[in-house]
């Protein structure tokens, strides 16, 4: 075993805790975990500075970074999953009755390449026929990959402004909620989302998102991915067995959590969400591996290309290590 630890930025989940505690190890090298608050800051450091040997980053950030030549490769493990009919807020006075009504309107999303925004635009375009080029996308943060060239219909909020203020002033018709939109104020920094900002009354665009999520999943098998594991290519070259060891370690760390979900003993803030997902996707709400996630990976690649984030289509195997 090498004496030099590999620097790792990874959030703590019920299915990563055993690695972070040292209960599960990898033979190639020791892992030195670093806590980054908020973890979004680690995305930027990884794709701009290669600040870590191994880093959990947003999958869209990863796709764009690879397209712009950042020497990283991802393991097909995905730490966060969610569907996207919910969290799409509209002003009740905006006259938006359905997705097509977003055309010609002003929509707020923290950054154009934020993965939540990519999935929502992909859903709107491919499932509901929205011409996303006719929507004015307003952003109030920078893109993780600073070299990214944005489409002409993406507009930055003026200096000193925010999506929250634009929504309060009636300048936005719709927005993503949470960290991807108007659920926070300011750029990712300590305490950036400690308190929900004051907003006017907003309503979900889709009245029954859970039913719609299940229907779309049954049709296309896409279970949106958020959070993957990027590894520096130089590290993969130096430790040729590391990728396989990490993949096996993440599978082993997840197994007790899946068993606890099934027998009802799981605890923690995300249990309810994972149980809801199991009603749609089956026994494993956190599938790993290319084949189990092929539809989702290919959809994200397709959406990224449609939205001008990556220059060409590619295969899942082009982007992810072969597991």
Automatic annotation (TrEMBL):
Database matches in InterPro entries: SsuA/THI5
Domain SsuA/THI5-like residues, every copy: 55-136
Organism domain of life: Bacteria
Name recorded for this polypeptide: 4,5-dihydroxyphthalate decarboxylase
């Amino acid at each position: 075993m090498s004496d030099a630890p590999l620097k790792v930025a990874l959030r703590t989940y019920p299915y990563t805790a055993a690695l972070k505690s040292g209960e599960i190890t990898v033979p190639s090298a020791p892992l030195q975990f670093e806590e980054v608050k908020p973890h979004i800051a680690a995305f930027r450091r990884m794709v701009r500075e290669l600040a870590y040997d191994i880093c959990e980053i947003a999958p869209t950030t990863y796709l764009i970074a690879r397209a712009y030549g950042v020497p990283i490769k991802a393991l097909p493990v995905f730490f966060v999953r969610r569907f996207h009919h919910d969290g799409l807020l509209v002003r009740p006075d905006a006259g938006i009755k359905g997705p097509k009504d977003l055309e010609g309107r002003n929509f707020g999303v923290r950054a154009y390449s934020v993965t939540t925004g990519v999935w929502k635009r992909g859903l709107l375009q491919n499932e509901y026929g929205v011409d996303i080029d006719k929507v004015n996308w307003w952003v109030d943060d920078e893109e993780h990959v600073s070299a990214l060239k944005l489409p002409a219909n993406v507009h930055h909020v003026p200096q000193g402004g925010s999506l929250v203020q634009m929504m309060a002033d009636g300048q936005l018709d719709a927005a993503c909620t949470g960290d991807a939109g108007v659920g926070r104020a300011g750029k990712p920094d300590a305490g950036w989302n400690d308190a929900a900002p004051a907003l006017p009354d907003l309503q979900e665009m889709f009245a029954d998102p859970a039913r719609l999520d299940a229907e779309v999943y049954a049709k296309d098998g896409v279970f949106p991915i958020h959070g993957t594991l990027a590894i520096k290519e130089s590290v993969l070259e130096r430790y040729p067995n590391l990728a396989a060891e990490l993949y096996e370690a993440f599978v082993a760390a997840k197994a007790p959590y899946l068993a606890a979900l099934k027998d009802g003993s799981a605890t923690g803030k995300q249990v309810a969400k994972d149980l809801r997902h199991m009603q749609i996707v089956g026994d494993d709400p956190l599938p790993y591996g290319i084949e189990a996630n092929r539809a989702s990976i290919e959809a994200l690649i397709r959406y990224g290309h449609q939205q001008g984030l990556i220059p060409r289509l590619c295969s899942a195997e082009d982007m992810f290590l072969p597991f």
